[in-house]
Amino acid sequence: xxxxxxxxxxxxxxxxxxxxxxxxxxxxxxxxxxxxxxxxxxxxxxxxxxxxxxxxxxxxxxxxxxxxxxxxxxxxxxxxxxxxxxxxxxxxxxxxxxxxxxxxxxxxxxxxxxxxxxxxxxxxxxxxxxxxxxxxxxxxxxxxxxxxxxxxxxxxxxxxxxxxxxxxxxxxxxxxxxxxxxxxxxxxxxxxxxxxxxxxxxxxxxxxxxxxxxxxxxxxxxxxxxxxxxxxxxxxxxxxxxxxxxxxxxxxxxxxxxxxxxxxxxxxxxxxxxxxxxxxxxxxxxxxxxxxxxxxxxxxxxxxxxxxxxxxxxxxxxxxxxxxxxxxxxxxxxxxxxxxxxxxxxxxxxxxxxxxxxxxxxxxxxxxxxxxxxxxxxxxxxxxxxxxxxxxxxxxxxxxxxxxxxxxxxxxxxxxxxxxxxxxxxxxxxxxxxxxxxxxxxxxxxxxxxxxxxxxxxxxxxxxxxxxxxxxxxxxxxxxxxxxxxxxxxxxxxxxxxxxxxxxxxxxxx
Length: 510
Hints:
By secondary structure, this protein is an alpha/beta fold. The protein folds into 2 domains: 2-176, Ribosomal Protein S5, domain 2 (2-Layer Sandwich); 191-499, P-loop containing nucleotide triphosphate hydrolases (Rossmann fold). 34% of the residues lie in helices and 17% in strands. It has a 5-stranded parallel beta sheet with strand order 11-14-17-10-18. A 4-stranded mixed beta sheet has the order 1-2-4-3. A hairpin with a 5-residue loop joins strand 6 and strand 7. Helix 2 (44-54) crosses helix 3 and helix 18 (450-463) runs parallel beside helix 20 (491-499). The longest helix has 17 residues, at 408-424. It is elongated.
């Protein structure tokens, strides 16, 4: 007796279809799984055996062999339980054969309950593209797949509810589904909460308009964290593709239950500086996405940047360039998207008060301590940060006279103008924002006037700029021009862009 059903395993955020073949033959009673299963899949033998018996079915007193193909793909996790049980019961004639091409995913408890598994959104999306007609999934995961896939979704809460039995659940059609957004589009915080700091707010608007990485530098209490945490309120809204990619990541990480069935707002991730390399980049067994992937499409905020281990910070260099993270294992490679906006904050020195004009707060750091502190940030990492923004301590008269501070609405007036201009250029989605312009699109959009070319050449020679910093300054100037509604980059736009590279100019206070 033989039966074949389909399940899948996850590699990164991609679902790979797996054929689950069950053969029941004469011989001494035995139950074995072949096809490169991990320990969790091998343990399915006992879960399936108990679930089948406790649901009133007969477990075959014969030799049962389960083959999972292709055999060269590592099978990980507990999501194969339901498919193995279904194949066993179909092969033994206790369940009717499945009609149509159907994928089956779910974990079984010992009493037959169908438990949720991570990554259902990826499973539903990829199964539809691979030609499957139906997905049998845990009822607790139904909210993840609704509204994204054209598959017929068959939720199960218990093995006894199998389609064709006495008490099945009704299948859910994708047409009847409605997406549930995670939270309101309205931002609960506003830049109007911050007194003064007009230049820093302007820099945040530039970052949001062109999706430029930013580093905020200033003494304690000047508003660096407030500037960063208000940035999501002025970012462009998600498009469908970005939302799908980010929601897939949260589904694979088993975090989607905290955010609804769709991420409608860009994520804001702020890990503590004690985070490990695996926590930042991803890893574990089986591998899970790290903070750089959970921030995909949104913001990764690193407060107190020099306090992070240098080994962790250096790992950011590759995802900042490639917009993805690849985790290699002996038998598989996992790739997670990681296109995020990096925003970091730091003090100018270990004590935090270098350059502060105060009679009571003066810097106590030695030259060696200062060099050691700033040496934690490598040149290649700083080179990948577009905007170096000074956030100075305000003087008493500046606080008193800070009437009508710039609000989200004020900044959005600039930002929306820039977004409309960038979309009108008709670049492909990967280069929609100025920070991602490449090749011909960069050359066409970022031509400089003669006087700006001369200033750039002088800065390149005197500041020792790299070619990466050279192009990033031009991209910032393009964003400023877009905010001003200018078709071309003017000298003033470029001069302002150059002011946001204080680390290149070594103008940090000492």
